[in-house]
Every structure is written in structure tokens, then in C-alpha cells.
């Protein structure tokens, strides 16, 4: 889901950039007011879509972090259980030699599970770092988009003023 959200965000940003270029080209060619308003509406819609995608990405990242915490807690409980089982095995080793072989096998299984759990925890920590970096990248992209949007709004305002000045002059 996170990858899909990132892909959707990237597609929306690409579409937004293309529409921004088209808007600039049309502004340079003195776009009619109706087209200008359509471009503004499209820009607002794309900004809303971008915001929704960013919020979705943030929610998915938070959900993934919560799942990671739950998984780490489960692995800690498994580790605790493995340690307790190892202590029980040591006690059983002192009690009888016949139990020795059975308990030693259980201990090896528990240690193998512990190793797998530790590896999984490390992998999950790595994923958490990657998610954090992806979130930072998304935030940087959002900031860049906001700056570009601000610039476009300023250009649109300047164009409106220019049109306002040109229209009375051309009518007279």
C-alpha cells in the first residue's frame, strides 16, 4: 500500500509539473480568462489530490510504525519465553541424563528461533529507517510543491492585474 501511495504521489506530482508547464506556456501566450480559470481549478484539484496522497502516505507510515512496535514487543516476549525455557532446560540437565537429549534439542530450537527473531528485528529496524527516510523525502517534496504553488499563485495574481489593466485600455 505504501508503494502504491508513493507511486500515486509520484504520478500526481508528475501530472502537476506537466500542468504547471502547460499553464506557464499558456500564460506566456496570453491565455483567455476561461482557460486560465480552468487551469486554476485543475491546479486546486491537483493540490487536493496531492494533499490527500500525502496524508494517506503519512497514515500508512504511522500504521507501519505501529505494526513494527507490536512485532518488536511480540519478539521480545518470544525472547523472554526462550530465555525461560533455556533456564528450565538447564535444570532438567541436572535432574536426568535421559532428559538431557530432549531438552538440548529444544534449547537448539529456541536458540534458532531467537536468532531468526533477532534477524527479523534488525530487518524491521532497517525498514523503519527506510520508511523514515521516505517520509522525509515526501515532506521535502511537499515543501517544494508548496513553494511552486506559491510562485504560481503569485504569477496568476500578477497576470490578473495585467489583464485588469489591459482590458480597460483595449476597450477604450
From TrEMBL:
Subcellular location: Cytoplasm, Cytoskeleton, Microtubule organizing center, Centrosome
Sorted UniProt keywords: Coiled coil, Cytoplasm, Cytoskeleton, Phosphoprotein
Stretches of the chain forming a coiled coil according to its record: 36-165
Official protein name in the record: NINL protein
This protein's record includes keyword Ribonucleoprotein: no
Main location: cytoplasm
Gene: Ninl
A cellular component annotation (GO) from this entry: centrosome
Signal peptide region: none
GO aspect biological process, one term: microtubule anchoring at centrosome
Source superkingdom: Eukaryota
